[in-house]
């Protein structure tokens, strides 16, 4: 089959490409140029593109670089800034997967006649009686199903994830056996357009004005101040100008227009459920008991999807920050997800 | 019928057989350092100096003014930075210059001259700049644009600059001109001129900056003082020899090759613009024979280029950034084209090596691909 492999320049997508070549497919590597600014941890620096290109050469496959920078700005960077201004906690990696890797790139693959799009994500595609479904990776530490939860059956049927059934150690071993230069490359962990040296505050400050705010307790008494209310996330403990180690106070509410952060105890942070919007489903909408994951590396907990599409927790859970993605599972199978209000 | 068409000659043309033949002895037996004093070194030096004489003769220049460089980019940087460093003040250039000029000009605190929507310099803006900024030390005007093929009226522009400011150095990036224009005529208008070998059949990594006697130029690479103290580093003798050999053949055959390739370009432009959404970006008759620049409306050139390659047609759009990704063309932007128009740019470039079979193959493939891309929702 004609397969387009998205190669970030990392070891996972390098090995994904190698496995597909070995299986005899007609493979073409593609690296996306997404972010045009400074980057030290992302997936589109010049060195990363060089690595992807060199691996493609080693595998004797064609390699192209597609510049989706304008779409990345429109669908990922601008919403990232706007979400902060609205007091929400965005997940730019999810928006990148949603709008760039599995929408824009899949369209590009279509018009160029590629039947399959492959990536190096650690997820599996499970065959179920209802068709293919996204499922957690074999290496649960590396599982990326949370950030790919928006892929529906139609998209999943066009995609393959060759390393989803391997552990990370197996992936690195394979790359080393093939002599790929990415075999021991460090993983990218952070948001690609936020540099470690400057951080989120510098990034946002360059694009908008951040608002100093007051920190109040649940009785409304001011207890502290913060330099930028937009940078405070629900559940945050550090950086609120309170206590020291061992302090058990959390941000339980952020009101950007009022420039006010409310802090409280762990019990005051807890909620019985989470209101959701912008649902996406693998196939049909789901009601009833599910497992729910609210962050990329969070533990799934039990809940029930009610008739309005909101989640009611089986036991109270810490409040989910507005803007965060909430993903529903049945065991290891992704059912869908939504965004916390 | 050929099943391949190399239409990216403006990026790099094939090596001329004459250049390869001339270079081979300098890659094998004549391995001496041309700065040395013994017989082996002298043989290398002889090849270098014979090449310098040939280049000077072809360009109507003094051999002492020919500085061999590693290519067009180095020659451009040497001109902009070297003159600016030697004289003080700031350089200016056209908004459509290659980045090898534009970036050092901007980095030197210089000014950028607007162009009209046909890509020709805005005369009034240039005149106003040179009159109102007493600190301008160098004006760089590219002879032929590398994307659109637009030929600047270099003589008129140079005369206007000299009338306003007789003291400034006038430089031209003639990298895309060498294949098509008489370099004696080009150089006659200016004080300094950059050329790159691989655009007309010489090897990559070969270039020259030619400067008139008396032009102040501070070296940008310091060391052994080669090239009359203007560019240190052991000369790449084989590259210089290949450059000169290719330039000589180019000069001898320019009128014949130019007429042949101009006919190819005219055919490409007239057939390809029959599609409703394809237009010639500029009036092709005002450009050089080797560049046919088209704008495909509602189609993304990034996808078109891959689809063309799948069918054996190698073409280009705008320039690429460090990662290899296409970047939006500053040239088309300066000419007032919209982002959508720039996203649909297609440059088909030809050289001495281009054949009727390649043109026929391109004419068979390109309309198909553009039509397919236009009808599959790949709208920009």
Features:
heterodimer, A: 341 residues, alpha/beta, Rossmann fold, Elongation Factor Tu (Ef-tu), domain 3, five-stranded parallel β-sheet, B: 380 residues, Aspartate Aminotransferase, domain 1, Aspartate Aminotransferase, domain 2, 2 domains, seven-stranded mixed β-sheet, three-stranded antiparallel β-sheet, 12 strands
Structure overview:
The complex is a heterodimer of chains A (341) and B (380). Chain A has 341 residues and is of the alpha/beta class. Chain A folds into 3 domains: 2-121 and 161-178, HUPs (Rossmann fold, 3-Layer(aba) Sandwich), CATH 3.40.50.620; 211-264, SH3 type barrels, CATH 2.30.30.280; 270-340, Elongation Factor Tu (Ef-tu), domain 3, CATH 2.40.30. In chain A, 26% of the residues lie in helices and 29% in strands. Chain A has helices spanning 11-22, 46-59, 69-85, 92-111, 153-156, 168-178, 199-205, 266-269, and strands at 2-6, 26-33, 62-67, 116-118, 123-128, 131-136, 159-160, 213-216, 222-226, 250-255, 260-264, 270-274, 276-281, 288-293, 301-305, 311-318, 325-330, 333-340. In chain A, strands 12-16-15-14-17-18-13 form a 7-stranded antiparallel sheet. In chain A, a hairpin with a 5-residue loop joins β8 and β9 (222-226). The longest helix of chain A is centred in the N-terminal third of the chain and has 20 residues, at 92-111. Chain A is globular, with a radius of gyration of 21 Å. The mean pLDDT of chain B is 95. Chain B folds into 2 domains: 5-13 and 254-375, Alpha-Beta Complex (Aspartate Aminotransferase, domain 1); 17-249, 3-Layer(aba) Sandwich (Aspartate Aminotransferase, domain 2). Chain B has helices at residues 17-27, 39-59, 72-87, 99-107, 123-132, 154-164, 183-188, 226-229, 237-272, 301-310, 330-334, 339-343, 356-375, and strands spanning 5-6, 66-69, 90-94, 111-113, 136-140, 169-173, 192-196, 207-211, 278-280, 291-296, 313-314, 345-349. In chain B, the strands form 3 sheets. Chain B has a 7-stranded mixed sheet, with helices on both faces. A 3-stranded antiparallel sheet of chain B has the order 9-10-12. In chain B, strands 1-11 form a two-stranded parallel ribbon. The longest helix of chain B is centred in the C-terminal third of the chain and has 36 residues, at 237-272. Chain B is an alpha/beta fold. In chain B, 43% of the residues lie in helices and 13% in strands. Chain B contains 13 helices and 12 strands. In chain B, α2 packs parallel to α9 (237-272). Classes of the chains: A alpha/beta (341), B alpha/beta (380). The interface between A and B is medium-sized, with 20 and 20 residues.
């Amino acid at each position: 089959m004609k397969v387009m492999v998205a190669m970030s320049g990392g070891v996972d997508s390098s090995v994904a490409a190698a496995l597909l070549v070995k299986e005899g497919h007609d493979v073409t590597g593609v690296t996306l140029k997404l972010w045009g600014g400074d980057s030290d941890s992302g997936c589109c620096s010049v060195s990363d593109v060089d690595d992807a290109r060199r691996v493609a050469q080693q595998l004797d496959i064609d390699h192209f670089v597609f510049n989706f920078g304008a779409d990345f700005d429109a669908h990922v960077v601008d919403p990232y800034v706007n979400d902060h201004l609205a007091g929400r906690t965005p997940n730019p990696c999810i928006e990148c997967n949603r709008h760039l890797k599995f929408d824009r790139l899949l369209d590009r693959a279509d018009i160029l006649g590629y039947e399959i799009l492959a990536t190096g994500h650690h997820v599996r595609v499970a065959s179920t009686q209802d068709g293919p479904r996204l499922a957690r990776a074999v290496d649960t530490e590396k599982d990326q199903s949370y950030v790919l939860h928006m892929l529906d059956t139609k998209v999943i049927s066009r995609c393959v994830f060759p390393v989803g059934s391997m552990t990370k150690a197996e992936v690195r071993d394979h790359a080393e056996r093939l002599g790929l230069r990415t075999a021991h490359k460090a993983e990218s962990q952070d948001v690609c357009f936020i540099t470690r040296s400057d951080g989120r505050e510098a990034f946002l400050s360059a694009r908008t004005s951040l608002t100093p705010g007051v920190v109040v307790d649940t009785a409304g008494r001011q207890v502290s101040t913060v330099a930028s209310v937009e940078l405070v996330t629900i559940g945050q403990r550090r950086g609120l100008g309170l206590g020291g180690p061992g302090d058990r106070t959390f941000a339980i509410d952020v009101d950007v227009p009022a420039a006010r952060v409310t802090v409280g105890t762990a019990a005051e942070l807890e909620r019985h459920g989470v209101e959701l919007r912008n649902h996406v489903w693998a196939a049909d909408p789901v009601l009833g008991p599910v497992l729910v994951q609210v962050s990329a590396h969070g533990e799934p907990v039990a809940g029930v999807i009610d008739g309005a599409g909101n989640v009611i927790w089986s036991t109270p859970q810490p409040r989910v920050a507005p803007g965060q993605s909430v993903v529903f599972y049945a065991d290891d199978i992704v059912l869908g997800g939504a965004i916390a209000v | 019928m050929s099943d391949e068409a190399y239409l990216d000659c403006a990026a790099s043309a094939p090596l001329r057989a004459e250049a390869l033949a001339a270079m081979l002895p300098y890659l094998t037996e004549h391995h001496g350092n041309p700065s040395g004093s013994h017989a082996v070194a002298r043989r290398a030096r002889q090849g270098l100096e014979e090449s310098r004489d040939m280049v000077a003769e072809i360009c109507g220049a003094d051999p002492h003014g020919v500085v061999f460089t590693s290519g067009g980019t180095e020659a451009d940087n040497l001109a902009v930075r070297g003159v600016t460093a030697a004289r003080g003040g700031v350089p200016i250039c056209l908004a459509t210059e290659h980045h090898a000029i534009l970036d050092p000009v901007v980095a030197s605190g210089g000014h950028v001259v607007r162009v009209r929507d046909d890509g020709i310099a805005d005369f009034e803006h240039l005149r106003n700049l040179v009159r109102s900024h007493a600190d301008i030390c160098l004006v760089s005007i590219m002879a032929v644009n590398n994307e659109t093929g637009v030929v600047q009226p270099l003589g008129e522009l140079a005369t206007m600059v000299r009338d306003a400011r007789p003291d400034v150095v006038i430089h031209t990036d003639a990298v895309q001109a060498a294949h098509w224009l008489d370099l004696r005529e080009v150089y006659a208008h200016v004080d300094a001129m950059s050329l790159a070998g691989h655009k007309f059949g010489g090897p990559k990594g070969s270039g020259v900056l030619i400067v008139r006697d008396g032009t102040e130029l501070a070296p940008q690479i310091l060391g052994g003082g080669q090239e009359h103290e203007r560019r240190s580093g052991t000369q790449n003798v084989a590259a210089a020899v290949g450059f000169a050999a290719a330039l000589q053949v180019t000069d001898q055959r320019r009128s014949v090759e130019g007429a042949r390739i101009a006919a190819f370009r005219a055919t490409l432009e007239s057939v390809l613009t029959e599609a409703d959404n394809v237009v010639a970006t500029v009036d092709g008759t005002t450009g050089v024979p080797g560049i046919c620049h088209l704008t495909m409306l509602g189609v993304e050139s990034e996808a078109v280029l891959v689809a063309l390659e799948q069918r054996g047609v190698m073409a280009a759009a705008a320039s690429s950034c460090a990662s290899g990704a296409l970047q939006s063309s500053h040239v088309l932007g300066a000419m007032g084209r919209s982002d959508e128009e720039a996203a649909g740019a297609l440059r088909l470039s030809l050289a001495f090596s281009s054949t009727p079979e390649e043109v026929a193959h391109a004419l068979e493939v390109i309309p198909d691909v553009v039509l397919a891309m236009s009808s599959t929702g790949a709208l920009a």
